[in-house]
Amino acid sequence: MTLVREVPWPRFDPIAFFRRCDEREVGLSFVRQGSWTIIAWQPSLTIIGNAQEDIVRIQTLIRMKTPPRTSCSNVPFVSGIIGCIGYDLSCHLRGMTVRPRKGDGFPGVLAHDYRHAIITDGRRTFISGGDAFLKDAESIRRLPDRAISLSNMKWESDLTISAYRRLFRSVKDAINQGSVYQLNLTYAWRTRSSNDRRRLFSLLLARHPAEYGAYIEAENYALLSLSPERFLAVDAQGRIETRPVKGTAPRGRNETEDAQHMRTLSHDGKERAELAMITDLLRNDLGLISEIGSVRVAEERRIFSTPSVWHAYSRITSQLASGMTAFDALCECLPGGSITGCPKRSAIEHIDRLERYRRGAYTGTVFTLADDGVLGSSIVIRALSARGKALTLGVGGGIVTDSLVDAEWQETLAKAAPFLAPLEDAECLWMDGAWVTISRMHRSMLDAKNADMKGIFETMYAYAGEVRLIENHMRRLRRSATLTHLSLPLSLPRIRSAVTGIAARFSSPAKIKIVATKKHVLVYGSPLMATHEHTKTGIAAQTISLERHMPAAKSLPNDACARAREQANRQGFGEALLVDGNGHVTEGAYSNVFWVKSGVLHTTSKNILLGIARGEILSLAKSLGIIIAFDSVTTADLCEADECFVTNAITGIVPVVRINATRMGTGRIGRITRMLMRAHNEIQKNGNARGISI
Fold first, then answer.
1. Which of 674, 189, 633, 643 has its CA nearest to residue 385?
2. What's the total number of domains in the chain?
3. pLDDT single digits (tens) 268-299
4. Which has the closest alpha carbon to 455: 436, 468, 438, 442?
């Protein structure tokens, strides 16, 4: 009997866990199947090969298995096989011979048999297997997150655009002659890299979340897939579902443009015809493996998005035929119709004649087959196959009679873009919807003292690849844009996706910043050096007469605050406290101000930026039973307070023990400040206060 248990791991992040795994966790697999993620290592058996006999070995292994006994009926995988089958071997399974030619060297089949796994849906996490595996998983979870250190890769394409045009014309000739109605034409990008493949996958998946992302490794091989496309899914009752994806449009630079691209895809006759043909093909494929009369199109056409493109899909369902296993059904339907064409056999024959290289793992399938017969699978697209230091990226698209060569070429580049983006960690830059190097952007946009730049900004704290309270930051960014009458050139979802992608690059604490102007949006990150000196001694602050033009918004230029902080630093002060025309202390140059008098915590709420960290400190104080008052304070009155502290994104609570030449209270960190600091640190230790910002 296979033991499965729920584990009390709040906020379990499967990507962060995966990133913590090292070479001791051999045979590592990470597979997403919709809302579920499966992580497994140390397989009891591994099958690697290029022959149909290796598929037979899996079929024999399946017949020897007994379903696990578990009360967790909704968990899709307890124990079983995780693997991938490449395109070329898939063709052999259909009785078709693929001519010998160069390829990526990836095996036709790579499969692991696991007796234990971690299974999570983001809310609940389960572990199957014995106590030894649970102990191993617990030790990995408690490890510090690993730094992602990656170098950029120089990619080379198999095809020039002129060579692609020649192949495109050949496809059109075949369509005009009636031998095919649709054909998926592909080519590859190649590079050599010494980058850690696990770190690379965790970065790519965090940047570009994929509903069917997968990582499978063995010996000298690894497959890194960011697939958006489900292939066959079979549940314990034999119900089958497939979702062929056809039709692609790029994401827009802003919400208006993005919506227009989506509408164009939705109504484009060529794209609708393409999906209709593939839907009909999959209906025929399911008819071979299903009970008679059970095949139906449940959804004819749905539009969905990825970070870089829009797609369309249909959903087809049926009931598995009696006497047939889910794995038999998978093999019978390979290769997937969405990546071959119509009719399938003729399309495969044309692909074999036209394409220069073997496809290898690309356009094959990743599958999970649980011991109780539950199958999940995806089409291997948006994927890297690795053999040693060699990496191969396959790209392509379906061609029909209405296809235009330049549009199809640009579509392949859009699909490749997430993998060809720069990977450097020193400064992570995303500008106007693309990953760029410093040489391709305006360096002045990083300079807080640039008085000529008009716009808004947002600063966030990231740890272990997470930005806590990101939705709060996005709302404040929208509010700043509204107050400054700035129309953002890119949509908030696009900006948010860039923020999470950049945060994923850093395992240690990092600062993530958004800078938006009328024409540009820049998102970048930089590592933070930990310093705890202020927690022991506190800092001195200097008052400076300064009123921000629009205190409720994080607006640019912010040069006055930058220069106020610089002035204070030059004179030995840790922060500048801004004083308005009425002599009231409002806020710090980069912080909110709190003070304590007679056991009451005070702060002002007028003419300041209502910081996110400020809100959390107020909530924390309330939970601790500390009395809170909102009022204004002069410099003289502030100097007579018992305690004072400021809050900001990087350092959290920073005690102030001296203002100008006046010592605060005893000159040491006060009781209520220490109480709040201890409580705040405890929250941070438990992972609840990551991402505090001002």
1. 189
2. 3
3. 887 788 888 889 888 999 999 999 999 999 99
4. 442
> Model confidence over 426-441: pLDDT tens digits?
445 777 777 665 544 5
pTM, entire model:
0.67
Q: Residue type for 425, please? A: D
Write the single-letter amino acid at 68.
P
The domain boundary residue, chosen from 403, 420, 437: 420
Structure-token match 């910002």, residue found = 693
Sign of CA dihedral 458, 461, 465, 466: negative
Residue 483, in any domain of the structure: yes
Active site amino acids: 229, 246
Show the domain range for 346: 4-420
Residue 268 shares a structural domain with residue 197: yes
Say what the pLDDT of residue 689 is: 37
Same domain? 538 vs 523: no
Identify whether residues 652 and 608 lie together within a single domain.
Answer: yes
Tally of CB atoms within 10 A around 655: 23
pLDDT of residue 79: 93
Location of structure tokens 């866990």 = 17
Task: Judge if 170 and 58 occupy the same domain.
Answer: yes
Rounded Cα distance, 161 and 168, in Å: 10
Distance CA 304, CA 642 (A): 57
Contacts of residue 49, defined as CB under 8 A and 6 or more positions apart, other chains included, come to 57, 107, 108, 109
Helices 197-207, 492-503: axis angle to 10 degrees equals 160
List the structure tokens of 609.
């930026």
pLDDT less than 50: residues of the chain: 425-427, 439-440, 687-694
**Residue carrying the six token digits 């990008």:** 189
d(CA 107, CA 386): 11
